[in-house]
Write a structure and sequence with these properties.
Elements lengths: L5 H6 L3 H15 L6 H8 L3 H13 L3 E3 L5 E3 L2 H6 L4 H4 L3 H16 L3 E7 L2 E8 L14 E2 L5 H8 L3 H7 L14 H14 L2 E4 L6 E9 L5 E10 L4 H25 L5 H6 L19
Antiparallel strand pairs: 1-2, 3-4, 3-8, 4-5, 6-7, 7-8
Helix pairs in contact: 3-4, 7-11, 8-10
């Protein structure tokens, strides 16, 4: 079967779907929300057409309209992501992770969550509720900062060097414990890469601590973080138990991903282009200060 020519590929596209993809791309770039005016400018359609498009997408929860009238990506997209065919992604991350999140929450009595990078934020894509008296909950769809929180610091520590540099240029303060000094953050990220887990000391929300550990794919790339938040005042023995359970859960998810990923033939691996370098404990270098 011959490849479809570029001209034919252009000819047999559906404009309204391309415009919808442009809307999704815009909302991905603006997690704080985009107005109808923003969307009109991006897709170059009339205000009436854009309104009808957004209203339809909102009805099916593909986009969410805030009380102020701005639009963000909707939670239905998380459901779709959870069912990406194995032939596309080789594994179903959410389906693999959820039983482990349920298990860790049952074991500890604390809430747990799975977080992935999403633009300039991190995104909670799965969670399990705890049954303890002071258990904290997380909801899929929450967007959180990279630099303030255990899961965010895990994902930041193992990001591409250029992304680390860019994200260190603006470290917003959320509490008195938030790390806002780039040099201090670099030291924190180096420690995280060395020990392979991270702790939040009330950096994103006062009175809330957390432990997180990385989830890796078959190429050893960190693709997600498992974390458990808990209230302050917990003794060190309890914290050690949480840390051990989080690390074990992250490793179990990693193992399941690798088991679900078909092994590539050696000749296919030889033809692959080398992946961009990510920070890790062996090759990490200190990003330039700005």
């Amino acid at each position: 079967m011959t490849d479809i020519s570029e001209d034919a590929a252009q000819k047999y596209r559906i404009p309204v779907i391309e415009q919808m993809v442009e809307v999704f791309a815009l909302l991905e770039r603006t997690p704080e929300g985009a107005t109808i005016r923003d969307v009109v400018k991006a897709v170059k359609l009339s205000r009436t057409t854009v309104y009808r498009m957004l209203n339809t997408l909102s009805a099916y929860d593909f986009v969410h309209r805030s009380p102020a009238g701005s639009y963000t990506l909707g939670r239905r997209l998380l459901t779709l992501a959870a069912h990406v065919a194995p032939t596309v992604a080789s594994y179903d991350l959410l389906a693999i992770a959820q039983p482990h999140l349920n298990k860790i929450s049952e074991l500890l009595g604390e809430g747990s969550k799975l977080t992935v990078p999403s633009g300039d934020n991190i995104l909670v894509v799965a969670s399990a509720q705890g049954h303890g008296q002071y258990a904290l909950s997380a909801t899929a769809g929450q967007r959180l900062p990279f630099h303030a929180g255990a899961a965010g610091k895990i994902l930041l520590a193992f990001s591409l060097q250029e992304d680390i540099e860019r994200r260190l240029t603006k470290l917003e303060r959320f509490t008195s414990q938030t790390i806002t000094d780039p040099r201090q953050m670099l030291d924190e990220l180096a420690l995280i890469r060395k020990q392979n887990w991270a702790r939040d000391m009330g950096e994103q929300m006062s009175g809330v601590h957390a432990i997180a550990a990385p989830v890796r794919d078959h190429q050893d790339t960190v693709i997600a973080a498992v974390s458990v938040p808990f209230v302050t005042g917990v003794d060190e023995k309890r914290i050690a138990d949480i840390r051990q359970a989080v690390i074990a859960a992250a490793q179990s998810i990693t193992n399941d991903i690798r088991s679900a990923t078909p092994h590539m033939a050696s000749e296919e691996l030889a033809d692959e282009k080398p992946a961009p370098k990510r920070a890790n404990q062996k090759t990490a270098t200190r990003p330039k200060q700005r």
